[in-house]
Amino acid sequence: MSVSAVFGPKMVTLPNPPSLTSSRFRYGGAIKAVPRIDGCGGGLVIECSSRPQKKATAHHMKTRPRKTQPWDIRRKPAVYPPLPPLPPEWSFAPADDSAAQPPPPLKSE
Fold first, then answer.
1. Are 37 and 13 in contact (CB under 8 A)?
2. Are the C-beta atoms of 75 and 69 separated by less than 8 Å?
3. Residue 21 forms part of a structural domain
4. Is residue 43 part of a domain?
5. Residue 34 within a domain
6. Number of folded domains in the chain?
7. How far apart are CA 97 and CA 71, in angstroms?
8. What is 46-88 written as a DSSP string?
9. Beta strand 30-34 with 43-48: parallel, antiparallel or unpaired?
10. d(CA 109, CA 105)
11. Cα–Cα distances in Å, from 30 out to 15, 34, 35, 87?
12. Overall pTM surpassing 0.85 (yes/no)
């Protein structure tokens, strides 16, 4: 059963209270009353924000941990041993037209 079947084809909307239509309402955003069309509709729409939030990356860059201790400032990146050479099966294919050919079949044991 739909809402219009219970309440009729048009729902009655109440007028906006004057306290909510002021230029500043909760968090400082300007709010504007939407004009009513054919007696229905209306409501409040936020026009702008006076204090927008930072986007995620900007927030993480601003609040990231800083190196303040001398031992942390002088710290160098970790040194790892070199990786072993790659096996010959993992070599790069030549750049000529042989790349269009299908690979050779695998040997089964």
1. no
2. no
3. yes
4. yes
5. yes
6. 1
7. 55
8. EEE-SSPPPPHHHHHHHSSPP--SHHHHSPPPP--PPPPPPPG
9. antiparallel
10. 13
11. 18, 13, 16, 66
12. no
More confident residue, 32 or 98: 32
Closest CA to 16 of 50, 49, 41: 41
At 51, the pLDDT band (50, 70, 90 cuts) reads: confident
Domain membership of residue 74 (yes or no) is: no
Domain that holds residue 15: 7-50
Give me the amino acid identity at 29.
Answer: G
DSSP lists the bridge partners of residue 44 as 33
> 44: phi > 0 → left, psi -120 to 50 → alpha, else beta; which?
beta
Q: pLDDT band for position 91 (50/70/90)?
A: confident
How big is the chain by its Cα radius of gyration, in Å?
33
Instruction: Give mean pLDDT, residues 75-95.
Output: 88
pLDDT band at 72 (very low <50, low <70, confident <90, very high): very high
Q: Which residues pair with 45 in a beta bridge?
A: 32
Averaged pLDDT for residues 25-35? 57
